[in-house]
Amino acid sequence: MQFTRLRLSGFKSFVDPTELLIEPGLTGVVGPNGCGKSNLLEAIRWVMGENRAKSLRGSGMDDVIFAGTDRRSPRNLAEVTLVLENRDRNGPAGFNDEDLIEVTRRIERDSGSAYRINGKDVRQKDVQLLFADAATGAHSPALVSQGRIGNLINAKPQDRRAILEEAAGISGLHTRRKEAELR
Ligand code: ATP
Ligand code: MG
Questions:
Q1: Residue of 16, 30, 39, 44 to mutate, ligand 1, most atoms within 8 A of C-beta
Q2: Going from the N-terminus, what domains does the chain have, and what CATH number goes with each?
Protein backbone atom coordinates (compact mmCIF):
# COMPACT_ATOMS: atom_id res chain seq x y z
CA MET A 1 0.00 0.00 0.00
CA GLN A 2 1.36 3.40 -0.93
CA PHE A 3 0.30 7.02 -0.58
CA THR A 4 0.10 8.32 -4.15
CA ARG A 5 -1.82 11.60 -4.10
CA LEU A 6 -2.77 14.34 -1.70
CA ARG A 7 -5.56 16.78 -2.57
CA LEU A 8 -6.21 19.87 -0.51
CA SER A 9 -8.76 22.64 -0.66
CA GLY A 10 -9.27 25.36 1.91
CA PHE A 11 -6.84 23.60 4.27
CA LYS A 12 -4.61 26.11 6.11
CA SER A 13 -2.58 28.08 3.53
CA PHE A 14 -3.76 25.81 0.65
CA VAL A 15 -6.88 27.83 -0.12
CA ASP A 16 -7.11 26.86 -3.82
CA PRO A 17 -7.58 23.23 -4.84
CA THR A 18 -4.12 21.67 -4.98
CA GLU A 19 -3.08 18.16 -5.93
CA LEU A 20 0.30 16.64 -5.16
CA LEU A 21 1.64 13.46 -6.68
CA ILE A 22 3.63 11.32 -4.29
CA GLU A 23 6.00 9.24 -6.39
CA PRO A 24 7.64 6.03 -5.13
CA GLY A 25 10.86 6.62 -3.21
CA LEU A 26 11.95 9.63 -1.25
CA THR A 27 10.03 12.89 -1.58
CA GLY A 28 11.46 16.20 -0.48
CA VAL A 29 9.43 19.39 -0.12
CA VAL A 30 11.52 22.51 -0.51
CA GLY A 31 10.53 26.13 -0.09
CA PRO A 32 11.02 29.32 1.92
CA ASN A 33 9.92 29.64 5.55
CA GLY A 34 6.18 29.84 5.89
CA CYS A 35 5.37 28.51 2.40
CA GLY A 36 3.35 25.58 3.77
CA LYS A 37 5.72 22.59 4.00
CA SER A 38 4.62 21.64 7.51
CA ASN A 39 0.98 22.29 6.56
CA LEU A 40 1.29 19.43 4.04
CA LEU A 41 2.40 16.96 6.69
CA GLU A 42 -0.39 18.20 8.94
CA ALA A 43 -2.90 17.63 6.13
CA ILE A 44 -1.79 13.98 5.99
CA ARG A 45 -2.07 13.67 9.77
CA TRP A 46 -5.48 15.36 9.73
CA VAL A 47 -7.03 13.20 7.01
CA MET A 48 -5.88 10.12 8.93
CA GLY A 49 -8.07 11.17 11.86
CA GLU A 50 -5.96 13.44 14.06
CA ASN A 51 -8.32 14.95 16.60
CA ARG A 52 -5.94 16.96 18.76
CA ALA A 53 -6.00 20.51 17.39
CA LYS A 54 -2.79 21.31 19.31
CA SER A 55 -0.76 18.80 17.34
CA LEU A 56 -1.86 20.71 14.22
CA ARG A 57 -0.71 23.98 15.80
CA GLY A 58 -4.26 25.21 16.34
CA SER A 59 -6.44 25.91 19.36
CA GLY A 60 -9.60 24.45 17.82
CA MET A 61 -10.18 22.18 14.85
CA ASP A 62 -11.70 25.03 12.80
CA ASP A 63 -8.20 26.56 12.75
CA VAL A 64 -7.31 24.21 9.88
CA ILE A 65 -9.75 26.12 7.65
CA PHE A 66 -8.19 28.89 5.54
CA ALA A 67 -8.46 31.96 7.75
CA GLY A 68 -8.02 34.63 5.05
CA THR A 69 -5.24 37.06 4.19
CA ASP A 70 -5.08 40.77 3.30
CA ARG A 71 -6.20 39.89 -0.21
CA ARG A 72 -8.41 36.85 0.20
CA SER A 73 -11.45 36.27 2.33
CA PRO A 74 -11.64 33.36 4.77
CA ARG A 75 -13.28 30.05 3.86
CA ASN A 76 -15.86 28.07 5.77
CA LEU A 77 -14.81 24.69 4.51
CA ALA A 78 -11.65 22.61 4.24
CA GLU A 79 -11.23 19.26 2.55
CA VAL A 80 -8.28 16.89 2.24
CA THR A 81 -8.16 13.62 0.29
CA LEU A 82 -5.39 11.06 0.54
CA VAL A 83 -5.23 8.48 -2.23
CA LEU A 84 -3.70 5.11 -1.42
CA GLU A 85 -2.75 2.61 -4.06
CA ASN A 86 -3.63 -0.95 -3.17
CA ARG A 87 -2.66 -2.78 -6.36
CA ASP A 88 -0.40 -5.14 -4.43
CA ARG A 89 -3.41 -6.00 -2.21
CA ASN A 90 -1.48 -5.62 1.02
CA GLY A 91 -3.73 -2.83 2.24
CA PRO A 92 -6.19 -3.07 5.11
CA ALA A 93 -8.70 -5.90 5.42
CA GLY A 94 -11.99 -5.20 3.68
CA PHE A 95 -10.34 -3.52 0.68
CA ASN A 96 -9.17 -6.61 -1.18
CA ASP A 97 -11.13 -5.69 -4.31
CA GLU A 98 -9.97 -2.08 -4.47
CA ASP A 99 -7.03 -0.80 -6.52
CA LEU A 100 -7.39 2.64 -5.00
CA ILE A 101 -8.53 3.73 -1.56
CA GLU A 102 -9.53 7.40 -1.30
CA VAL A 103 -9.90 8.79 2.18
CA THR A 104 -11.51 12.23 2.52
CA ARG A 105 -12.03 14.43 5.54
CA ARG A 106 -14.04 17.59 5.34
CA ILE A 107 -14.72 20.22 7.96
CA GLU A 108 -17.25 23.03 7.98
CA ARG A 109 -16.92 25.94 10.36
CA ASP A 110 -18.88 25.26 13.57
CA SER A 111 -20.13 21.87 12.40
CA GLY A 112 -17.19 19.50 12.77
CA SER A 113 -15.66 16.88 10.51
CA ALA A 114 -17.10 14.27 8.18
CA TYR A 115 -15.20 11.37 6.62
CA ARG A 116 -15.58 9.36 3.42
CA ILE A 117 -13.79 6.27 2.16
CA ASN A 118 -14.21 5.71 -1.59
CA GLY A 119 -17.18 8.05 -1.58
CA LYS A 120 -19.06 6.36 1.26
CA ASP A 121 -19.74 8.18 4.52
CA VAL A 122 -17.84 6.56 7.38
CA ARG A 123 -17.04 7.27 11.04
CA GLN A 124 -13.77 8.77 12.25
CA LYS A 125 -13.09 5.43 13.88
CA ASP A 126 -13.27 3.63 10.51
CA VAL A 127 -10.57 5.92 9.13
CA GLN A 128 -8.41 5.55 12.22
CA LEU A 129 -8.77 1.77 12.01
CA LEU A 130 -7.88 1.76 8.32
CA PHE A 131 -4.52 3.31 9.18
CA ALA A 132 -3.97 1.60 12.53
CA ASP A 133 -2.71 -1.67 11.07
CA ALA A 134 -0.30 -0.04 8.68
CA ALA A 135 1.39 1.72 11.64
CA THR A 136 0.85 4.96 9.78
CA GLY A 137 -1.87 6.43 11.97
CA ALA A 138 -2.14 10.10 12.82
CA HIS A 139 -0.26 9.49 16.08
CA SER A 140 2.31 7.19 14.55
CA PRO A 141 5.91 7.95 15.51
CA ALA A 142 6.73 7.48 11.84
CA LEU A 143 5.35 10.99 11.26
CA VAL A 144 7.97 13.19 12.88
CA SER A 145 6.91 16.80 13.34
CA GLN A 146 9.21 19.79 13.25
CA GLY A 147 10.91 20.16 16.64
CA ARG A 148 10.44 16.50 17.62
CA ILE A 149 14.07 15.67 16.83
CA GLY A 150 15.12 18.41 19.25
CA ASN A 151 12.74 16.96 21.85
CA LEU A 152 14.30 13.54 21.39
CA ILE A 153 17.82 14.89 21.89
CA ASN A 154 16.86 16.93 24.97
CA ALA A 155 14.59 14.30 26.55
CA LYS A 156 15.46 12.53 29.82
CA PRO A 157 16.72 8.97 29.19
CA GLN A 158 13.44 7.47 30.47
CA ASP A 159 11.33 9.61 28.14
CA ARG A 160 13.68 9.01 25.22
CA ARG A 161 13.33 5.27 25.74
CA ALA A 162 9.54 5.63 25.65
CA ILE A 163 9.73 7.45 22.29
CA LEU A 164 12.06 4.80 20.83
CA GLU A 165 9.83 1.99 22.11
CA GLU A 166 6.83 3.66 20.52
CA ALA A 167 8.74 3.91 17.22
CA ALA A 168 9.76 0.25 17.44
CA GLY A 169 6.13 -0.68 18.05
CA ILE A 170 6.77 -2.42 21.36
CA SER A 171 5.14 0.01 23.81
CA GLY A 172 1.95 -2.11 23.68
CA LEU A 173 3.93 -5.07 25.05
CA HIS A 174 4.73 -3.20 28.26
CA THR A 175 1.06 -2.47 28.81
CA ARG A 176 0.21 -6.13 28.30
CA ARG A 177 3.05 -7.25 30.63
CA LYS A 178 1.75 -4.98 33.39
CA GLU A 179 -1.71 -6.42 32.89
CA ALA A 180 -0.33 -9.97 33.14
CA GLU A 181 1.64 -9.15 36.32
CA LEU A 182 -1.50 -7.86 38.02
CA ARG A 183 -3.31 -11.14 37.53
P1 ATP B 1 9.20 26.61 7.96
O2 ATP B 1 10.23 26.49 6.88
O3 ATP B 1 9.36 27.85 8.76
O4 ATP B 1 9.04 25.37 8.79
P5 ATP B 1 6.79 25.87 6.50
O6 ATP B 1 7.04 25.82 5.03
O7 ATP B 1 6.76 24.58 7.24
O8 ATP B 1 7.79 26.89 7.18
P9 ATP B 1 4.12 26.17 7.42
O10 ATP B 1 4.33 26.21 8.88
O11 ATP B 1 3.61 24.92 6.80
O12 ATP B 1 5.43 26.66 6.70
O13 ATP B 1 3.11 27.31 6.96
C14 ATP B 1 2.88 28.42 7.74
C15 ATP B 1 1.98 29.36 6.96
O16 ATP B 1 0.66 28.82 6.89
C17 ATP B 1 1.90 30.69 7.66
O18 ATP B 1 2.09 31.69 6.69
C19 ATP B 1 0.50 30.72 8.20
O20 ATP B 1 -0.05 32.01 8.16
C21 ATP B 1 -0.24 29.84 7.20
N22 ATP B 1 -1.44 29.29 7.80
C23 ATP B 1 -1.54 28.39 8.81
N24 ATP B 1 -2.82 28.15 9.11
C25 ATP B 1 -3.56 28.92 8.27
C26 ATP B 1 -4.95 29.14 8.10
N27 ATP B 1 -5.88 28.50 8.83
N28 ATP B 1 -5.33 30.02 7.14
C29 ATP B 1 -4.42 30.66 6.39
N30 ATP B 1 -3.11 30.51 6.50
C31 ATP B 1 -2.67 29.64 7.43
MG1 MG C 1 7.78 23.82 8.86
A1: 39
A2: 2-137 (3.40.50.300), 147-183 (no CATH)
Q: How far is CA 133 from CA 28, 47, 92, 127, in A?
A: 26, 16, 7, 11
Cβ-based neighbours of 8, under 8 Å, separated by 6 or more: 14, 17, 18, 19, 20, 40, 43, 78, 79, 80
Which of 136 and 159 is assigned the larger pLDDT? Answer: 159
Ligand 1 centroid distance, CA of 147 (Å) = 15
Does 39 contact ligand 1 (Cβ within 6 A)? yes
- Alpha carbon dihedral 38, 9, 100, 141, in 10-degree steps, equals 20
Q: Which range among 41-50, 58-67, 115-124, 126-135 shows the weakest confidence by mean pLDDT?
A: 126-135
41 Cβ inside 6 Å of ligand 1: no
ipTM: 0.98
Residues 62 and 11: their CA atoms lie apart, in Å, by: 10
Give the tens place of pLDDT for each residue, 6-52: 999 999 999 999 999 999 989 999 999 999 999 999 999 999 999 88
pTM: 0.84
